């Protein structure tokens, strides 16, 4: 997604070769129009998959899951990192390690909102180590739902996440794939051109 790549080049800050700060437009202060375009891009990519639910993890994936769910006309669910007193029903749970926070969380989704009848699209802001997305995959597996794919807004392709996810056989679509980065420069992987035969 060229518009997203351009915005990352313009407003993203690579703190080093592993940490990208995009809090001015993606995950603290949020560009609402860009977020809705991101949701439309995911919806277009997965339009033939008969998605019934979009799943993410709190908190930075919520607005992208909302935008995607709105574009597809389906609900979105977010896995909660802390159990609220109102969350009294049976839960799907798993542990997820956060690369950004350096912590491990137990995340949960109510069994009321995800079942074997669902066709689930997972959406998150970053694909780096893949741990959060593998955790969400485990939630889908526990529910018996069918996972149609994973959408990542930004992928750090130089980290191991894509490989771990591809090993599970899941379809992955990232809107901006970073090949390498430094405080001076961010390099994107260009999507291979589709050649008609």
Structural account:
This protein is α/β, with parallel strands linked by helices. It has a domain at 38-168: 3-Layer(aba) Sandwich (Rossmann fold), CATH 3.40.50.2020. It has five helices and ten strands; from the N terminus they run αββαβαββββαβαββ. The protein has helices at 2-11, 32-45, 62-72, 131-143, 161-166, and strands at 13-14, 20-21, 53-57, 76-79, 91-98, 103-110, 119-127, 146-156, 172-182, 185-188. It has a six-stranded mixed beta sheet, with helices on both faces. A two-stranded antiparallel ribbon has the order 1-2. Strands 5-6 form a two-stranded antiparallel ribbon. The longest helix is centred in the first third of the chain and has 14 residues, at 32-45. It is an enzyme of class 2 (transferase). One of its GO terms (cellular component) is cytoplasm. Pfam families: Pribosyltran. This is Xanthine phosphoribosyltransferase.
What order do the helices and strands come in, and which of them pair?
Elements: H1 2-11, E1 13-14, E2 20-21, H2 32-45, E3 53-57, H3 62-72, E4 76-79, E5 91-98, E6 103-110, E7 119-127, H4 131-143, E8 146-156, H5 161-166, E9 172-182, E10 185-188
Helix pairs in contact: 2-3
Q: What's the total number of strands?
A: 10
Give the integer mean of the pLDDT values. Answer: 92
Tally the helices: what do you get? 5
What proportion of the residues form beta strands (DSSP E)?
Answer: 25-35%
Strand order within the widest beta sheet: 4-3-7-8-9-10
């Amino acid at each position: 997604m060229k518009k997203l790549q351009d915005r990352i080049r313009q407003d993203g800050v690579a703190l080093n070769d592993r940490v990208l700060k995009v809090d001015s437009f993606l995950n603290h202060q949020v560009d609402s129009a860009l977020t809705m375009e991101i949701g439309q891009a995911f919806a277009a990519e997965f339009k033939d998959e008969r998605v019934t639910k979009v799943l993410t993890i709190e908190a930075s994936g919520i607005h992208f899951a909302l935008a995607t769910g709105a574009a597809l006309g389906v609900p979105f669910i977010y896995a909660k990192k802390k159990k609220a007193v109102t969350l009294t029903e049976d839960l799907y749970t798993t542990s997820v390690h956060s690369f950004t926070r350096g912590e491990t969380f137990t995340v949960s989704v109510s069994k009321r909102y995800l079942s074997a009848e669902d066709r689930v699209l997972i959406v998150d802001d970053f694909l780096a180590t893949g741990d959060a997305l593998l955790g969400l995959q485990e939630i889908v597996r526990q529910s018996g739902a069918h996972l149609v794919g994973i959408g990542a807004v930004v992928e750090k392709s130089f980290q191991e996440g894509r490989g771990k996810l591809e090993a599970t056989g899941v379809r992955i679509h990232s809107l901006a794939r970073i090949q390498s980065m430094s405080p001076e420069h961010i390099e994107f992987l260009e999507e291979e051109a589709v050649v008609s035969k």
